[in-house]
Amino acid sequence: MDYLLEIDDLHTYFKTKKGTVKAVNGVSYRVEAGKTLGIVGESGSGKSVSAMSILKLLDGNGYIDSGEIKFKGRNLVECSQNDMYQIRGNEISVIFQEPMTSLNPVYTIEKQLNEVYLTHQKISKEEASKKSLEMLNAVKIPNAKSIMKQYPHQLSGGMRQRVMIAMALACEPSLLIADEPTTALDVTIQAQILHLMNELKREKGTSILFITHDLGVINEMADSVAVMYCGQVVEMCDAHTIFARDNEYSHPYTEGLMTSIPRLDTPVGTRLDAIPGSVPHPLDLPKGCKFAPRCKYATAKCMEEEPKLEEVEGNHSVRCFYPEKEGRHATK
Ligand SMILES: Nc1ncnc2c1ncn2[C@@H]1O[C@H](COP(=O)(O)OP(=O)(O)OP(=O)(O)O)[C@@H](O)[C@H]1O
């Protein structure tokens, strides 16, 4: 299999006054060339920190403790900040939920987009402007010529996000990290942006690491999925497997996520099951399986020992002592 990115047993920690926060605690996942890996999980599960570790864009108190991040065969953990400067925006780009945090309010769209080209390519200002205009057209910004002269605050949220996508894709990166890029947008604009990203992925062959807490978005975007909980991947498989009702294996946490969303074929009046309890505090993680205190199938073993992420069938791994759905009985 041709993997563009392979993360293996990554541990990313933060030093805080109260102790070491193990935000990413042994994460492994892979992104195939030209495909989208969706990372899903509740707030605080380590989705963003695992992605920011790839770019080495961690807060000052954060560090990669151990593990490997192989991108095109090169271990990024060992790369210097100087090497990373060449890789960021050129080979790997990122778009965030709130484009205003990445766009500079005092420069026009043209200046900011040109800057991306001028930083990474040896071209003139005029050529950069020409490419910037082409890129705004590629992300379907109407009246792109006049938008070039505008400042970020003059654009709507959806338009700003399109500009961000244009900036992120300007240098044709092999990998685009999209961290909840549509969460702040209303649903029709969200659908347009997702559609646009899928189109650009098909046209340019860009791989995407798509972070979201929304399984509906995963269904729309992902070829494969990694479900994260408490800084670990608890299940990884093809996207269609996770949505198949008759799949033989699953992690109880994934099962909980699936039953907590409404589906078109859910009979009217059916109660949706929320996962009981809440995500444990990262400084006070349970001893055995991190999900055990909230899991209706947990046994004494789950409270004491930690399961490993193990392959249960081709392309499908689950971190659970009881991955087979058949025969699993609620103990709570
Ligand atoms: N600078 C920091 N110092 C201490 N802890 C941090 C720091 N940055 C992140 N964390 C902690 O790391 C954990 C993982 O955070 P992360 O942002 O990756 O979660 P997430 O799954 O992306 O959630 P969300 O959807 O809310 O962004 C959280 O418990 C968070 O509080």
Automatic annotation (TrEMBL):
GO terms for biological process: peptide transport. GO terms for molecular function: ATP binding; ATP hydrolysis activity. SUPFAM superfamilies: P-loop containing nucleoside triphosphate hydrolases. Keywords: ATP-binding, Cell membrane, Membrane, Nucleotide-binding, Transport. Pfam families: ABC_tran, oligo_HPY. It is found in: Cell membrane. Belongs to the ABC transporter superfamily. This is ABC transporter ATP-binding protein. It comes from Sellimonas intestinalis. The lineage of its organism: Bacteria, Bacillati, Bacillota, Clostridia, Lachnospirales.
